[in-house]
Amino acid sequence: MRVPAPGLPPRIRIHEVGARDGLQNEKSVVPTGVKAEFVRRLAEAGLSTIEATSFVHPKWVPQLADAEQLFPMLGDVADVGDVALPVLVPNERGLDRALALGARRIAVFGSATETFAARNLNRTVDESLAMFEPVVARAKDAGVHVRGYLSMCFGDPWEGAVPVAQVVRVARALMGLGCDELSLGDTIGVATPGHVTALLAALNEAGVPTGTIGVHFHDTYGQALSNTLTALQHGVTTVDASAGGLGGCPYAKSATGNLATEDLVWMLDGLGVETGVDLGTLTATSVWMAEQLGRPSPSRTVRALSHKE
Questions:
Q1: Which of 154, 168, 243, 300: disulfide with 18, CB 3.0–4.6 Å?
Q2: Which residues are catalytic?
Q3: How far apart are CA 35 and CA 26, in angstroms?
Q4: Is 49 helix (H, G, I), strand (E, B) or coil?
Q5: Cβ-based burial of 60 (10 A; exposed 0-12, middle 13-18, buried ≥19)
Q6: Which pLDDT belongs to residue 248?
Q7: How far apart are CA 34 and CA 205, in angstroms?
Q8: pLDDT above 70 (res 309)
Q9: Which strand (E) or helix (H) includes residue 229?
Q10: Which residues of 151-178 are buried (b: 16+ CB within 10 A; e: fewer)?
Q11: Three-class SS of residue 56?
Q12: pLDDT at residue 249 above 90?
């Protein structure tokens, strides 16, 4: 039953990350054909932004080593509708690979903390921003949309709580490079609603408009939906989620699964917020992918609607 709540946007865009952020954390490598079919099924479910893969060095993320093979297989996905297929690029070499295959949306991945920057990027925060500068500039010159991911926005497994002012400084610098949007990552899932409100307000005060911000919550402590609702009440209209709740972070072992797309759609359907996603088709897709992976989906909604425990 739909019971709208006041103060929410009428429609939001789900930035689906299951095919990239979800599968990169799997112990086994998923066959390229299965990945392509996963993206197709996600598009058929009505998702309009599906992060397809990552052009990182295979040494670092072997699960996504087939980016060159996968991306050309997705040309027919555009026939499903107006579907965007962003890809993650770590540096100029990754950008070259992505542009060569016709990618029109890319993302760079930064950190709000020094320890995670060192472990994930082998650089300081400022050195990583310097590395991203030519990537963003070249992408924009090529007419490519650029998303900036900022991880560890709420807590870091090595440094603990991350000061809001520290996150704001790096976020402003990342957006200052020319990114079109900013995704705030709760990489280890420690955020709570008050913290979300405080960070969004601080970013607004620092000149980062709500319309450019997306949120990316992990459900480690069961707070992903409440944090998302808080962000929507603030005016955020882009939410990252992963079909079936797949994913974590290979460089932060305490990071558990992403917010499940089905759980998000169930909540938003009940609130009367449009997503364009057919929950039944999406659930069937996650059940299918769980079968490919040989384990049940962690999404509560998938389990409830598919009657699987």
A1: 243
A2: 249
A3: 12
A4: strand
A5: middle
A6: 55
A7: 44
A8: no
A9: helix 224-234
A10: bbbbbbbeeeebebebbbebbebbbebb
A11: coil
A12: no
Strand partners, 54: 88
Residue 198 near residue 188 (C-beta atoms within 8 A): no
Q: 128 with 170: CB under 8 angstroms? A: no
Q: What is the 3-state secondary structure (H, E, C) of 80-145?
A: HCCCECCEECCCHHHHHHHHHCCCCEEEEEEECCHHHHHHHHCCCHHHHHHHHHHHHHHHHHCCCE
- Kindly provide the residue ranges of all beta strands, DSSP E only, lying in the chain, ordered along the sequence: 13-16, 49-50, 53-54, 87-88, 105-111, 145-151, 155-156, 160-161, 181-186, 213-217, 238-241
Q: What's the CA gap between 11 and 273, in Å, rounded?
A: 5
Q: Are strands 160-161 and 87-88 parallel, antiparallel or unpaired?
A: unpaired
Would the pLDDT of 157 be above 70? Answer: yes
Pick from 189, 191, 306: nearest CA to 244? 306
What is the rounded CA–CA span in Å between residue 125 and residue 275? 35
The pTM is what?
0.95
